Amino acid sequence: MIFWRRKTREAELDEELRAHLSMSVQTRVDWGADRKEAERAARREFGNVGLVKEVTRDAWGRRWLGDLLGDARYGLRMLRKHPGFTAVAMLTLALGIGSNTAVFSLIDALLLRSLAVPAPRELVRISFGPPGTKGALPDPMFDRLRERQSAFTDLFAWTNAPMVLTEKDVARPITGAYATGSAFPTLQLKPRLGRLLNGQDDEPGGSANGIAAVISEAFWIEHFGGDPRVLGQPITVDGGAATIVGVMPRSFNGITVDYAPQVVLPFAFNVALRRKSSWLNAMGRLKPGVGFAQAQASLATIAEDVVKESLPPNNQRVDYLRNGILSLTPGRTGNSPLGEIYGRELWTLQALVGLLMIICCANLATLELSRTLNRHHELVVRSALGAGRLRLVRQLVAESAILALAGAAAGIVLSQWMSALLVRYIEQSDFPVFLDLRPNAASFAATIALAALTVILTGALPALSLTRVHTEEMLRSGAPRTVSRKRHPFATSLLPVQVALSLLLASLALLFAISTGKLLRMDPGFRVKGITLFDVNFERRPEKGQARLDLYRRMLETLRLAPGVEAASVIAARPLGEGGMHESAAPVEGNGPETKHLFENVVGPEYFATAGTKVLAGREFSQFDRFGGTPVCILNQAAASFFFPRQNALGKHVRSTEPSAARDTCEVIAVVADAKYLSLREPASATIYYPYQQLPTFNWVGFITRSHNTSAAIAAFQNGLRRVAPDTPLFPPITMQRQLEDSIGKERMTAALSLFFGGLALLLTSIGLYGLESQRVAQRRAEIGLRMALGARRKDMLWFILRESAVIFAIGVPIGLALTFAASRFIGAQLYAISPLDPRIYVAAVMALLGAGFLASSIPARRATKVDPMVTLRYE
Amino acid sequence: MPEKRERYQNRIELLQGTLDLLILQTLQWGPQHGYGISVAIRNRSGEILQVDTGSLYPALHRLEKQKWIKAEWKVSDNKQRAKYYQLTAAGKKQLGRERSKWSQLSDAMAGVLDPEQM
Q: Contact, A259 vs A163, CB < 8 A?
């Protein structure tokens, strides 16, 4: 726009002046002069056309634009002339900006971004549970609360649920969710097509037209080719039928940031299908003018009544409910289970990459400075020719702006790749994580801000301090090679900062890496290699009760006979999978009923042989431990030594103290080694195992196999399932190795990335040191030559150069140590089995840093010793 | 090159106020193009004031930017397309101010140079 206007103006000025000249000529011709003579005279009178144009352009007051273009062009030329510097600078910036953008876009997606609904700030999450937890509400509590509340326009509930879609007799898992009829009206969402669910859809049995379903835009396009005739189509989900009535907008992916439901059904569908109440994630939209605090106060007045009225007098999860309170949290960003798990680690990483960015900037500034010192003579000449200081600064800033822009572009490309890598760490295997990581305004703004920071730190500051040129002094002395004895303090003050920050990053990286290594190498109490776990869902099979148990038995037999499968059993709660069951129990024999909360697992015969957990005493469950026989159970060591300290637990009895317990007592037939089912970090909790064959109503167990190679086990399982229970949906199997890695995903992510960033920091600092020292050697060639001519030995010269690096480290290392001590307070909780103050870590980090630094500065130092005194002195 | 430019710039500085006044005054008699303005000033000053193009055009463009004059492309009597400048209302007011400033200045100069006549 401006360029275009400038072009026209330029043309106009041209024509205006040409008109002037031709009129001047014409007047002279009219007065009788010869045309040639007239032209010459007119031109003489007019003067230098180019000059007139230039001074006139000055009057337009837009000179800066042309200058800017000039600066840019000159900057590009300078960068092209120094390809080595440009490449290093670009790479540094791309890494710095790329890693910052990648981590930030993940934080943005998981923790910061608002739900894509109108006025997301009005949304509030309502949770129930012991203080500090964000649990779901039981069905009746939600209904009661919705009746009584006054601060919200309405409440709605939303529950994500994996579903099974059946199409042409093929069953496959999809992502689904249940919503109350109030959900879409309260979210104020507009449909992409058709309509969204409303209150009538959520009446028991659905509206007159049956159960309504809405689908996501992605599902619509993938499954129905984006055909608008999808409205009214039937869909079979979890064995029930529904009718598609609308498509959700593309930007809306449910209220959980990492879970995008493909199908949303009214809760009425779930109730019709399963005839059971559920736990609901509740949200509400504040009435206009009602603030968050006001809503909290309003809730406080009714909360106690609501809780009391809606809880059954004797409930299974007594403790949980007894301590439960209703609480509000802001709901602008929706639910983010992954954000809650990874939030702290991600912010830690953001802090690390932030430090890395500072190192990048410091590095660039140092490089830029040492490069500009070389150009000192150029700057002096330019300032002698009348360039103002501002003009010089602008020139230098323009160069770093070009660099920053190019670096930011490369960084954005790099960040795409890096954030995909980050998601791989975060992803749990059982269901793909859905995360919208396309660059958006927020991450773009972050990148631009970083680029701007770079320009300021690497361009403007050094430029300001450098352009304080003493023209006369420099020109008079004539030989810049001998004056640079006093180097610029700015350059040297940056390197200790870099050293300190690198030390910080390196020590943190070592801490995280060692802690994660310990987690990975510890003995969890079960085999990791060769174990594969399978989920199975027999809900659609006609077999119930005993028949269902037979189904499991047949499946198990098929698995055991399959080639390549060494052992197989049944398992309910996967080791290190999410969740599990709880049981409270007390010993029958002994001095008193000492109730203890236990972790409960339901397993099949030969489970411990399959899983590789040692049986310390007694025998495993066998196929003869069936319903109707003596109820049996197995305790782990922690449970056995709690209930029966210093006694033999075998043959003793344990009584379940759960109010709803169907089985009263069971005989302990074995004690097994402790195994970590919940978390690798915590010591194994006291555990009780029951045989699945004695629990005919229990129906969510899966299979576990041990095999030499995983694919054999998977093939065996798929064949078996096809034979024993066709039309059962296949869920992706998972290896124990993967399960274990998943369970410490955040530790592995922090360790891998901090190692990467720490290494990068060391590399950058080395480059900075190398750049500065090479510069110094080049500048002081004459001095070195002279000293050597006067009899200094090579060793002296080596030390002469290395001394400076030593000073930098002498300042930087203590600062870095102090920083690390300060930081260790914040990361202690994220570490496993290592103290954040472990001196060995610091020794290792300092050694690594010193090694890198020595390597970096010894190359230029060695170069200094190769200086031939004769050559340099003659040159001077 | 820089020295030459400096020469021009000095002259603009020297003439700035005066040249603006001369241009505004010339345009009072009607729209005129750059060449016309320079001829008019030369003629009316009895060939004493030679307006340099290097001063005239920056001044014209500056006055235009300040909205004291406006420009329009027209075809002159002898079929020459030229940029005609014209006084605006603001320019007329400015002319009045410049004139009174000038007469104060010339009175003061006269008083200093020739005290008897006061």
A: no
